[in-house]
Amino acid sequence: MPVTIIDYGSGNLRSAAKALERASREGGTGAEILVTADPDAVRRADAVVLPGVGAFADCRAGLAAVAGMEDALQEAVIEKGRPFFGICVGMQLMATRGLEHGSHAGFDWIAGEVVVIAPDDERLKVPHMGWNDLQVEAKDHPLLDGLVAGAHVYFVHSYQFRPRDPASVLATADHGGTVVAAVGRDNLFGTQFHPEKSQAAGLRLLSNFLRWRP
Questions:
Q1: For the chain, what is the HEC assignment?
Q2: Phi, psi of 63 (to 5 degrees)
Q3: Which of 42, 49, 52, 168 could disulfide-link to 163, CB 3.0 to 4.6 Å?
Q4: Least confident of 59-68, 123-132, 160-169
Q5: How many C-alpha atoms does 2 have within 13 Å on its Cβ side?
Q6: How many angstroms separate the CA atoms of 126 and 153, rounded?
């Protein structure tokens, strides 16, 4: 059964697929990477990746527009406990709600809200865009294994996930204050940054995900 990347019209699918294929090849896992809009393929998947680019509400609406996909995602990830990796807005959708241009319901898999970034330093711009140092908070998490202190990762976002439980915050960055960079619990993991654009650090993270058996 492959690792499926959900195609719902949002996200840089080609870059994500190529990065995962490289991680599979160089990491020796032999994982098959499948980009799909087929809910049945998601139900059968060994692991699920949900990318997302743009506004929270648009991504949620795009996912809902693929008949049966939300149910398949719930079945695979929550009921069957398959490893899940949300990227950028794909991570934000795990929240209870997003507050970008109104209030919009998320999956409520990890309690919390997606809120606008508000740097303390007015010279810092929003969106938070470009390379930043990663601060690993959960040093024993399998997906963060091998990431060196201050690893550079690539961000493009104006909103961030604020989990209700601080233990759900796995990594942070600084942009005029703490910005949540990765969240997770159980079989759920997500990054605000783009691992497919984060070179060595991103490749290590994706390789760890392909080996992950929570």
A1: CCEEEECCCCCCHHHHHHHHHHHHHHHCCCCCEEEECCHHHHHHCCEEEECCCCCHHHHHHHHHCCCCHHHHHHHHHHHCCCCEEEECHHHHCCCCEECCCCCEECCCCCCEEEEECCCCCCCCCCCEEEEEECEECCCCCHHHCCCCCCCEEEEEECEEEEECCHHHEEEEEECCCEEEEEEEECCEEEECCCHHHCHHHHHHHHHHHHHCCC
A2: -65, -45
A3: 168
A4: 123-132
A5: 16
A6: 17
- Contact between 91 and 143 under an 8 Å Cβ cutoff? The reply is no
Tokens representing 167? 């233990």
Please tell me the pTM assigned to this model.
0.95
Question: Among all chains, which residue has been given the structure tokens 């961030």?
Answer: 160
Confidence of residue 149 (pLDDT cuts 50, 70, 90): confident
Q: Which residue reads 């949540």 in tokens? A: 180
Residue corresponding to tokens 């648009």: 58
Q: Is residue 114 within 8 Å of residue 56, measured between CB atoms?
A: yes
Its CATH architecture, for the domain 3-211, is 3-Layer(aba) Sandwich (3.40)
